[in-house]
C-alpha cells in the first residue's frame, strides 16, 4: 500500500469517528443534563428531610422554607429548563424561579412510597428519603 493511500485511509477513518461523535453528542448531552437534574433533586430531597426533622416530621409546603438547607436557590432550577430565570439570592426568590413542583405538601417524612416533588422537564420524581425515580428505577445521589 502506498503512503498516500494509507494517509487517505486514516483520514477516512478519522472522519467516520468524528461523524459518529457528532451524532451521539446531543443524546449524551441530554443524558448528562438529566443526570444533573436527578442529582439536584436528590439534594433537594435530603434538604427537605433535614427541614422536616426540625418542623414536626412533615415536609415543607413550599421550597422557600428550605432556604437554610439548600444554601442557594440555583438548586431549584433544572439544568434542562431554559424558561425559568435563576434567582440571585433567596431574598429575590419567587415561584417563578423554580423548575420543580411539589406534589404532596406536608407529606410525612417517613412516607417513602409517595413522591414529594417532580421535575416537569424530565419527569423525575423526588422522594423524602433523597432518592429520585428517573423513569426506570429509584436512585440515590450519584452521577448515573
Features:
alpha+beta, 5-stranded antiparallel β-sheet, 2 helices, 7% strand, elongated
Précis, in short:
It contains 2 helices and 5 strands.
What would your notes on this structure say?
The structure is a single chain. With 144 residues, the chain is of the alpha+beta class. The chain has one domain. The chain has a five-stranded antiparallel sheet, covered by helices on one side. The longest helix is centred in the first third of the chain and has 51 residues. It is elongated and about 80 Å long. The relative contact order is 0.17. The model has no long low-confidence stretch (mean pLDDT 85).
List the helices and strands and how they pair.
Blueprint lengths: L2 H51 L13 H4 L30 E2 L14 E2 L6 E2 L5 E2 L4 E2 L5
Antiparallel strand pairs: 1-2, 2-3, 3-4, 4-5
DSSP helix fraction:
25-40%
How would you spell out the order of helices and strands?
HHEEEEE
Low-confidence stretches: none
Strand order of the largest sheet: 1-2-3-4-5
Give the count of helical stretches.
Answer: 2
